[in-house]
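RECORD TYPE: inverse folding
INPUT: structure tokens
STRUCTURE:
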């Protein structure tokens, strides 16, 4: 038996809608499914508009560039994230300032960020300037780790204090909610970005989206991603990009979104099983619960809180031998080769935490039998090693 971490569930209307694209010849970046997908994403987000693009990485980059962020700028990101968060900043010409995460939520430690900003930047006419790099601090990009909601009011408060833009990496958080159970798009942020990569909650094969409450801003982002074309002829007013999503990708995305509620509830069920397994062991904890809002459970699993870190690799091997896909989780950005030497806070939490995280199989069509097999393999290991 082989049980993968998370594979796409494509048993709905995906094939029919793809066939429709081919029959209609609308296979490229204009077509009814692109419009439908944008509409559907805006609806889920509680916004009036959304711009779909070719990947989540591009969504983040375009969101930043749409806010005028680029050369000579600095953007604060958490270290516990997928490398795309950092890459998107660098693609704009800006540099990252990397911050540690909170032990209780695994999201960016805003107290630590505030302390670092006060200590390492000065007010200038243009905003806060970072002394060591000479760059202007322009934005903060909180990451909704594994779909976990975050305290947007606190982020917005910090942003107001220092004149920063807020771009949320909500890559894997489609369907999450903010405080008062409001949809994600009502978060106090300049932009939120999703990914529709194959392993995300819904996939379009590859793709991403930017949502915002500011419709003029979204028009700018759309313009930037669609060659900066004005009018029906070949007139272009900026050096822009071709970062459009194709109608075929959107067709898959539309079919996937039809089943979002079912996907989210199956993900939650899987999370509950692993969370109750964690409760049976002293040295295991389930993935964190958000302090405000409602998280979605893109990935679920357990993490190790004991003293013997060597057990973590032993557990991974034990599971792999049983045919269960278990790999290390994201290696923090400050430890990644391209980002060594970037400005960074101290990292006591992330340095230790990332090795202890075990994302367990959680495809939406995982069977109860497969979940039971994962739990039984995990339990046989931790019964022998619970300390
Ligand atoms: C998946 C992911 C991305 C990047 O999305 P792509 O569509 O793969 O470019 C960015 N940030 C986080 C946190 C992600 O999980």
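DESIGNED SEQUENCE:
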């Amino acid at each position: 038996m082989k049980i993968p971490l998370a594979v796409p569930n494509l048993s709905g209307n995906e094939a029919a809608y793809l066939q429709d694209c081919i029959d209609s010849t609308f296979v490229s970046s204009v077509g009814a499914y692109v419009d439908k997908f944008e509409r559907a994403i805006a609806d889920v987000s509680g916004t009036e508009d959304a711009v779909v693009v070719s990947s989540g990485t591009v969504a983040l980059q375009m969101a930043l560039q749409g806010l005028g962020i680029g050369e000579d700028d600095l953007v604060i990101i958490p270290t516990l994230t997928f490398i795309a968060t950092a890459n998107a900043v660098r693609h704009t010409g800006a540099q990252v300032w990397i911050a540690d995460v909170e032990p209780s939520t695994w999201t960016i430690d805003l107290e630590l960020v505030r302390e670092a900003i006060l200590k390492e930047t000065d007010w200038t006419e243009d905003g806060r300037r970072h002394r060591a790099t000479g760059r202007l601090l322009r934005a903060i990009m909180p990451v909704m780790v594994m779909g976990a909601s975050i305290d947007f009011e606190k982020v917005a408060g910090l942003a107001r204090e220092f004149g920063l833009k807020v771009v949320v990496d909500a890559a894997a958080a489609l369907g999450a909610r903010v405080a008062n159970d409001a949809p994600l798009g009502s978060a106090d942020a300049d932009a939120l970005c999703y990914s529709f990569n194959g392993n995300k909650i819904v996939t379009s094969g590859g793709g991403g989206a930017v949502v915002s409450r500011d419709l003029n801003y979204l028009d700018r982002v759309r313009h930037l991603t669609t060659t900066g074309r004005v009018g029906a002829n070949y007139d272009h007013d900026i050096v822009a990009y071709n970062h459009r999503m194709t109608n075929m990708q959107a067709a898959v995305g539309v079919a996937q979104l039809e089943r979002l509620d079912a996907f989210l509830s199956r993900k939650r069920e899987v999370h509950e099983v692993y969370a109750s397994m964690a409760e049976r062991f002293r040295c295991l904890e389930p993935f964190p619960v958000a302090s405000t809002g409602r998280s979605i459970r893109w990935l679920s699993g357990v993490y190790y809180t004991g003293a013997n870190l060597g057990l973590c690799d032993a557990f991974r091997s034990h599971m792999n031998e049983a045919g269960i896909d278990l790999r290390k989780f994201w290696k923090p950005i400050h430890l990644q080769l391209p980002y060594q030497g970037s400005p960074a806070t101290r990292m006591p939490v992330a340095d230790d935490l990332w090795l202890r995280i075990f994302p367990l199989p959680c495809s939406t069509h995982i069977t109860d039998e497969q979940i039971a097999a994962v739990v039984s393999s995990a339990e046989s290991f931790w019964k022998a090693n619970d300390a």
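NOTES: The longest strand covers residues 73-78.
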